[in-house]
Design brief:
CATH architecture: Alpha-Beta Barrel
Cofactor: FMN
EC number: 1.1.3.46
Largest sheet: 8 strands, parallel
Radius of gyration: 20 Å
Distance between the termini: 39 Å
Bound molecules: flavin mononucleotide
Number of helices: 13
Shape: globular
Order of helices and strands: HHHHEEEEHEHEHEHHEHEHEHEHE
GO molecular function, one term: FMN binding
Keywords: Flavoprotein, FMN, Oxidoreductase
CATH topology: TIM Barrel
Pfam family, one: FMN_dh
Length: 377
Amino acid sequence: MASAQEPTTGPRLTQRRRAAGEPAHPADPAYLDLDALERQARELLPPDVVDHFAGGADRETTLGEATAAWRAWRLRPRVLTDVGPVALATTLLGTDVATPVGIAPWAHQAMAHPEGERATARGAAATGALVTVSTSSTTSLEDVAAVRPTGPRWFQLYRLHSPAHTDDLARRAGRAGYTALVLTADLPVLGRRLRDLRNDFALPAGLPLPHHPPADGTGPAPAGTPRWTTADIARFADLSGLPVVVKGVLRGDDAARCVAAGASAVWVSTHGGRQADPVVASAAALPEVVEAVGTEAEVYADGGIRSGSDVLTALALGARAVFVGRPAIWGLATGGADGVARVIGGLTGELAHTMALCGLDDVRAVGRDAVARAAWR
Ligand SMILES: Cc1cc2nc3c(=O)[nH]c(=O)nc-3n(C[C@H](O)[C@H](O)[C@H](O)COP(=O)(O)O)c2cc1C
């Protein structure tokens, strides 16, 4: 059985390279075994914490369909195209990133690893990936910024009990050098996470939650607190001085409303299947959102992205970048910053390899013609 110190992913070839002091080749297709990583994380963490991280809402239909929905598409490789080295770098709202695979905001990271968000930020830095810091982080947004003073990082905002406190967080993100503010719009109330209810799950006593005033706890703002509307997009852009990304959009008409109200990007997401259930999969919603937004704003997607070909499918359907949640959780839990870097590096390596196989050499130039629906489905 592997211990936490041993390489968490991959096969002997990768281990031999590591033992020889060589970096595992990022385009080695055998580099990342996410299932093995998850199995290892499950051995290291208490069962109720695993359930909390892995679980979804209600009957978990959305959760169960997420990856399959990307795999309802098939790649359409080009041949004889004289493909050079694959260019993986792109820009997200003007910020340079080395890979179109970013880290989604996820809460309470100190429950997965003592270094929590700091280690995630270091792992992202090692791979040149964008990291999104959650309102429900266990490290303050300023302390994460200190770990990664330069480089791409965004701050994710939840609507808290106190509107004044929420506004203050938006201003702090701007001051601390975050380059975009991500408004999570799919949490008007908390989804019914049945695994947590069955386990009577509670956050460990003393878990730091620096962005939640003590009286608030971590739940969503109660009834009576003003709800967010599209008018809040321009308001938060103004308060923070940052471009605003709206996360949790699953409909073309909503995407168009957000962009008309000043959003610089929309992020197609089911919140990892943890909110309304069953909802349309990100892979199914993405084409409609891309069509509604056109060239007016950037579009990203997350939910069930587990391989380089999933990433490529999302790019072909019009996403400029994708984000991962649970793979980063298992990476952090098993290997801290290195584990996070291995996950992002592994997915990026798989993407590069799959692109090379498909006759594609630039992530910014992947077209809709790169995929087709699986004909036999
Ligand atoms: C344990 C956990 C905590 C999460 N916390 C947040 C959060 O604080 N803010 C947020 O906007 N999304 C949160 N999400 C949703 C993720 O940002 C992302 O949308 C989702 O995990 C992507 O799906 P994947 O896990 O299949 O990659 C969380 C997801 C998980 C699994």
